[in-house]
Amino acid sequence: MQYNETSPGSLKKGLKARHMTMIALGGSIGTGLFLASGGAVAQAGPGGALLAYAAVGIMVYFLMTSLGEMATYMPESGSFNTYASRFIDPAFGFAMGWNFWFNWAVTIAAELSAATVLIKYWFPDSHSGWWSLLFLALIFALNALSVKGYGESEYWFAMIKIVTVIVFLIVGVLMIFGILGGEATGFSNFTAGDAPFPGGFFAILGVFMAAGFSFQGTELIGVAAGESENPRQNVPRAVRQIFWRILFFYILAIIVIGALIPYTNPDLLRSDIKDISVSPFTLVFEKAGLAVAASVMNAVILTSVLSAGNSGTYAATRVLFVLAKEGKAPRFLGRLNRRGIPMNALLITASLGLLAFLGSLFGDGVVYNWLLNASGMCGFITWVGIAVSHYRFRRAFTAQGRSLNELPFKARWFPFGPLFAFVLCIIVIIGQGSGAFSGGQIDWAGLTAVYLGVPLFLLLWLGYKLIRRTRVIPLQEVDLDTGTKTGQ
């Protein structure tokens, strides 16, 4: 299916190069860096956290180059499910689309729940429901105005996060060398006690899995490619920049945290959404003498969760729209208003944000953790689908006698890249529930929450396959032409 700017019912191409870069970058810098990084250092030590985040960064690089190659050749707002349907099997694409929609639609509710927890730092006695309604209305409005409205809001959300990280890195480096905050700490904490790898292999494996969640969101660039003004230039530029910037921010941040805060510091273990005062960023800023650090970081992390909710709403809405256009969702979801917004798909997606109102009934932290577990596995399934789709795409390209020179952007290290990403994602998926077996007892509730996404995906895939009697598409029959002129 081909979408272009002049065809009826087409999405508007309003995303500029700077929007594309910030969408990818902003989607991956959030609570995973501001909060989870502290727990990673505490669990695996500074060396273990550094190794885990670097490995995941390399995996994400291969996934983004794979996605970049496909998205520049045929820019589609359906992205993952469209590529999976075309290069693997329509049933696999059906399952990928609904898996991705569920992932991000539920993430909206999770982030709204997180926002209510964060806002209570200033207004502890306020009602969660009203805050959820306010933030949901804000996110809905940003997405309902225009695609440029979404892109512009995400640009500034991301800018706030990036400036915060840069200031943190500058302050941290000055403290390490004694220019700020008194005595130079150097890198002695990297070898203090049992550091740099106090927990051994399994501690690093646990952090590796947590790091994967931190990087989720980079794949949003594949969805945004369908509404980019010039995807064949903007997508490769964003893909090339995103790897180095993410690796730069995450790796340097881990080095600064590991150097300035001993891994034995009990506050690192309490770095979660309910206690901003012990974010590793807050600890470093307070150590530098910045008394307002906790309040400032609370505001930054609030913008981070709203950014994630904003991006989740955009991505889930676009994928639901394309599922409808492909006959894999009710047809009314494939309609656009005069501003080029799939309003029906947006309304259905935003309605899942109402789950955040459960926070006022069962407690904010409980709902946030439940929703996060329910959607977390779906992100890794999406990454597996990207790797397999790219592998099949390139093999079909070769089997049909096409020249690689036809590709506007070529992913390096093929086939190692997608195979490496596939294997690591499978390891993460299998090992995700290892924490449920600790202490000699099995946490069945936790195990069910973690792995719920896997049987749901298989049910969608095999159910569609049986009903529609689809088959894996032979390489010679893979459609490599439809939609390729969209970005020209």
TrEMBL record:
<dbReference type="Pfam" id="PF00324">
    <property type="entry name" value="AA_permease"/>
</dbReference>
<feature type="transmembrane region" description="Helical">
    <location>
        <begin position="413"/>
        <end position="432"/>
    </location>
</feature>
<feature type="transmembrane region" description="Helical">
    <location>
        <begin position="129"/>
        <end position="147"/>
    </location>
</feature>
<feature type="transmembrane region" description="Helical">
    <location>
        <begin position="341"/>
        <end position="362"/>
    </location>
</feature>
<keyword id="KW-1133">Transmembrane helix</keyword>
<feature type="transmembrane region" description="Helical">
    <location>
        <begin position="288"/>
        <end position="308"/>
    </location>
</feature>
<feature type="domain" description="Amino acid permease/ SLC12A">
    <location>
        <begin position="19"/>
        <end position="471"/>
    </location>
</feature>
<dbReference type="InterPro" id="IPR050524">
    <property type="entry name" value="APC_YAT"/>
</dbReference>
<feature type="transmembrane region" description="Helical">
    <location>
        <begin position="242"/>
        <end position="261"/>
    </location>
</feature>
<feature type="transmembrane region" description="Helical">
    <location>
        <begin position="368"/>
        <end position="393"/>
    </location>
</feature>
<feature type="transmembrane region" description="Helical">
    <location>
        <begin position="444"/>
        <end position="464"/>
    </location>
</feature>
<feature type="transmembrane region" description="Helical">
    <location>
        <begin position="21"/>
        <end position="41"/>
    </location>
</feature>
<keyword id="KW-0029">Amino-acid transport</keyword>
<feature type="transmembrane region" description="Helical">
    <location>
        <begin position="159"/>
        <end position="180"/>
    </location>
</feature>
<feature type="transmembrane region" description="Helical">
    <location>
        <begin position="101"/>
        <end position="123"/>
    </location>
</feature>
<keyword id="KW-0472">Membrane</keyword>
<feature type="transmembrane region" description="Helical">
    <location>
        <begin position="47"/>
        <end position="64"/>
    </location>
</feature>
<protein>
    <submittedName>
        <fullName>Amino acid permease</fullName>
    </submittedName>
</protein>
<keyword id="KW-0812">Transmembrane</keyword>
<dbReference type="InterPro" id="IPR004841">
    <property type="entry name" value="AA-permease/SLC12A_dom"/>
</dbReference>
<dbReference type="InterPro" id="IPR004840">
    <property type="entry name" value="Amino_acid_permease_CS"/>
</dbReference>
<keyword id="KW-0813">Transport</keyword>
<feature type="transmembrane region" description="Helical">
    <location>
        <begin position="200"/>
        <end position="221"/>
    </location>
</feature>
